[in-house]
Amino acid sequence: MERGDHEAHPGDPSATLTSPPQHMTPEQFREHGRAVIDWIADYWERVETLPVASTVQPGDIRALLPDTAPEHPEPFENLLADLDRVIVPGVTHWQHPGWFAYFPANSSPPSVLADTVSAGLGLIGLLWSASPAVTEVESHVLDWLVELMGLPQHWKTTASGGGVLQGSASDATHVALVAARHRAAQRSGRHAAHTVAYTSAQAHSSVYKGAGVAGFGHVRSIETDERHAMRPDMLRDAVAADASAGLVPAFVGSTIGTTGTTAVDPVRAIAAVAGQYSLWHHVDAAYAGTAMICPEFREHLDGVELVDSYVFNPHKWMMVNFDCSAFYVSERSALTEALSIDPPYLRNAHSDAGNVIDYRNWQVPLGRRFRALKLWWVLRSYGAQGIRQLVRHHVAMAQELAERLRDDPRFEIVAPHPFSLVCFRCRAADATDEAARAADRATDAVAAAVNGSGTAYLTPSQLDGRSIIRVAVGQSRTDREHLDQLWKTISEAAA
Amino acid sequence: MERGDHEAHPGDPSATLTSPPQHMTPEQFREHGRAVIDWIADYWERVETLPVASTVQPGDIRALLPDTAPEHPEPFENLLADLDRVIVPGVTHWQHPGWFAYFPANSSPPSVLADTVSAGLGLIGLLWSASPAVTEVESHVLDWLVELMGLPQHWKTTASGGGVLQGSASDATHVALVAARHRAAQRSGRHAAHTVAYTSAQAHSSVYKGAGVAGFGHVRSIETDERHAMRPDMLRDAVAADASAGLVPAFVGSTIGTTGTTAVDPVRAIAAVAGQYSLWHHVDAAYAGTAMICPEFREHLDGVELVDSYVFNPHKWMMVNFDCSAFYVSERSALTEALSIDPPYLRNAHSDAGNVIDYRNWQVPLGRRFRALKLWWVLRSYGAQGIRQLVRHHVAMAQELAERLRDDPRFEIVAPHPFSLVCFRCRAADATDEAARAADRATDAVAAAVNGSGTAYLTPSQLDGRSIIRVAVGQSRTDREHLDQLWKTISEAAA
Questions:
Q1: Which chain A residue has the Cα nearest residue B216?
Q2: Of residues A37, A90, A208, nearest to B33 (C-beta)
Q3: Closest to A264 measured CA to CA, from A236, A299, A220
């Protein structure tokens, strides 16, 4: 292209000398920053006095906002005031000690401060060279967790595998599915439409969704046993039938601690099927994975050294705030072969030489934040000891709640509770369908009463077609007094 | 399941009364929080004095970290001290005013403070009901941007379309590809292996990667014209040939402001082809989209009212720190049909009634942070006015740099520069291959000299097989003195 070709610019802004907009001065930032820190400290101190669940109706929050964006700058005080005026009424408080819904998503002081630093640094770790510390702290701390959690040594970045932080377990499971599809296509020469993914009927929706997003032709929901764990015999039958029918079995997802009831699939037995049929075996330990920091829970990891990938979420139970999902692979090349692409503007000497990790090849997006900072700071602030104490405290409280439920003839526990989730329902008067329906209505009413109380929030759900209540003990502020309050509310509602 | 079935718990932690670990007290949090805010303010004040690019070698950062995770809590002061000891030497400073590499990823004071609040609240907006404010502020502010950016009215959530924040443009493009694949499969009854995605040879790697991840059977790279924009005639030929061959053309990705040179594809002409063959038409305006806040750039949006989806990144040029990618669809049902899945633990009255937006059905992951807060705070802190001023300032400086390059016979500009990216190379002495190779070596040497200087950081790249240098003007701290310094360094290096 010749010189002079590109002289004209439509807006011709170079005609006038321009200047930058007014930024917050360093002194203003220090002042407003202190106000924000104080607002958060105050929020944490008063969160217990707020109703756990927001009671706003659809559209209520939007009605508080102006119709159009502001043309002129507003003072920072307005923004802060609107946290209380607009936001807090529309918040369901995940950091409330009465949080027993879904699973916890714990924040913590050191984690919040690390995320603040990460935002301030504003680094994008798309390549090692784009900020080496982002990649190296991540690799290193994820290697630490291998030791700390009793995970297989070959999952370290210093061996054949490696850990990477993904935004969520859904993202991790999705990339595992993509890698599985890639491997199956290479082996079989068949398209995704002919590949099959298997997981238990109790697996998280993200496995089904991920398989759909990744274009698997078939997803088989494998029957569970009386403990809601996948039946490896049924898996084997399903895989054998598909293989005989000319399909390509490609992926099996096991769960250690299902969302429904924290059931634990028999990983070793599933690994045997996966090995025989060359399935990619992925383990979803999103919630329960944190418990593995305590040796007494590691029996549930039995067989995990045989799997291809594993995910657990420090952003659930480990006081690292969302998003921070730790994803491990046993062979990192299996992942990067499925996800690498190399445009010229990302070429650089260290990457070309292959002596660094470029995490963009371990995930779908190109950009990535410095998320490892909060994981590092949480581990250092609490020490392994502090996290073990948190896990044991929550598990103990959940077992105490289970004890109460078991001792009360009005309720029945509907599933094993090896961690800190307890699932129960109101007991039916007799074995008739009519009694079951009445018990379901009573269970739903208890859930509605608790969630309407403002003091606690739990998740009404279904198991085997019956209404149940999930109580996930795991918010880092939850202590025995909150369990007592919950029990009182449940008990009164059932009266 | 009978009462008493689940009495035994392996670890039997209920035998001992447990207690929670020691958390940071509110007073400690206030104190450490102030220290963190001060550290960031200091960092921003001194970032200009630091070399832009980290000079550490692979492994240097890890070597500073202990081999194993800490067993016991460490004082907060150690964490803060390690920011300077371990992290800063391994940082390539994206917030440095000498940042001209890739595209900018601007942070800003109000954005950092909003992310701090978001982390402190620790909300997960997986469903409307999980914190209504997270969803409603997001919908509302993205509707604001439709007005502010001159985007089509039907993209608002109050009409048929809607905006959603994704983690990155790669994520947005990937879900657009998944929706396109879904629609094509429904229409044609054919598998993904038979579907084809089209994009320009200059499109971002994320389009190629996303198509691969989504399992498209074919991705066609369409030839570009002398301005590096997609040739709609070549697109039409390629689509017609594939359709005749029995394949299923399904997706076309246009770009407004390519990563290579900020070329603008002819969206209206591409839309005509997309309309004729029922392709999903997605527009990637990741970087240039922010410029649309200034009316004088909207000529580049011509035809955008005809497309199915559009993405731009407030986290690039709009002072909202990563991650904050604004993704719009013209028909939200086309997206949610491809991505919805409904497990029992996520059922709730408002979602069942369909009178709220559940953003989990607009993305791959289930969980999501309160990212809209920082977008809202940035818009209010700067006002539309302030963001327009920033864009015009950067574009003016880029045009001034282009002027200097054009006036200097040693250099040649290699592509149009309608926004704030300028691509150039050293001019070859004559038209021989040998002269071209010598010019490439000179160009590479200039890039290496600038990047080695510590005062500026730019991206060496390739265009049509020749070495070029990309200078992206857009860091929010960059002013004329930094452009002058850059020009001086370039000029001296080329001497």
A1: A215
A2: A37
A3: A299
Four-way CATH pick for A114-379: 3.40.640.10, 3.40.50.740, 3.20.20.140, 3.30.470.20: 3.40.640.10
Q: CB count, 10 Å around CB of A488?
A: 13
Q: Let me know: does A312 contact A290? Beta carbons within 8 Å.
A: yes
CB contact under 8 A, B346 and A1: no
Domain span(s) for CATH 1.20.1340.10 in chain A: 26-93
- Strand ranges of the sheet holding A457-463, from the earlier edge strand across to the other edge: A99-100, A457-463, A466-472, A421-426, A411-413
On chain B, the residues whose CB falls within 8 A of the CB of A192 are 191-193, 215
The pLDDT tens digits for B253-290 are 999 999 999 999 999 999 999 999 999 999 999 999 99
Residue A386 and residue B73: Cβ atoms within 8 Å? yes
Torsion of CA B62, B67, B70, B75, to 10 degrees: -40
Please report which confidence band the pLDDT of residue B8 belongs to, taking 50, 70 and 90 as the band edges.
Answer: very low
**Cβ contact (<8 Å) for A136 and B61?**
yes
Would the CB atoms of A14 and B403 count as touching at under 8 Å? Answer: yes
Q: Where in chain A is the domain with CATH 3.40.640.10?
A: 114-379
Q: Which residues of B touch A34 (CB under 8 A)?
A: 33-34, 37
Sole residue written with tokens 């991540």: A138
Q: Which residue of B has its CA nearest to A422?
A: B6
Distance (Å) from the alpha carbon of A237 to chain B's nearest alpha carbon? 26
Minimal Cβ distance to B56: which of A16, A92, A132:
A132
Give the pLDDT confidence score for residue B36 in this predicted structure. Answer: 98
pLDDT tens profile A439-448: 999 999 999 9
pLDDT for the residue numbered A335: 94
CATH number at A26-93: 1.20.1340.10
Residues of A in contact with B174 (CB under 8 A): 364
Q: Name residue, tokens 């028909």.
A: B331
**List of chain B residues whose C-beta atoms are within 8 Å of the C-beta of residue A65:** 137, 140
CA distance B127 to B116: 22
Look at A44 and B29 and tell me if their CB atoms are within 8 Å.
Answer: yes
For residue B389, the surrounding DSSP H or E stretch is helix B372-407
Whether B119 and A121 lie within 8 Å, measured CB to CB: no
Nearest chain A residue to B33 by CA: give it. A37
Q: Tens of pLDDT along B340-389?
A: 887 777 778 887 777 899 999 999 999 999 999 999 999 999 999 999 99
Supply the ipTM of this predicted assembly.
Answer: 0.95
Under the banding of pLDDT at 50, 70 and 90, the label for residue B75 is very high
Picking from B87, B191, B384, the nearest residue to A70 by CB comes out as B384
CB contact under 8 A, A470 and B345: yes
> In the predicted model, what is the mean pLDDT of residues A295-321?
98
Q: Supply the pLDDT for residue A265.
A: 98
Asked if B29 and A366 come within 8 Å (Cβ–Cβ), the reply is no
Phi, psi of B447 (to 5 degrees): -60, -45
**Nearest-CA neighbor of A317 among A360, A244, A257, A264?**
A257
Alpha-carbon distance of B99 to A187, in angstroms, equals: 45
* For testing contact with chain B, the best of A60, A116, A196, A458 (most B CBs within 10 A): A116
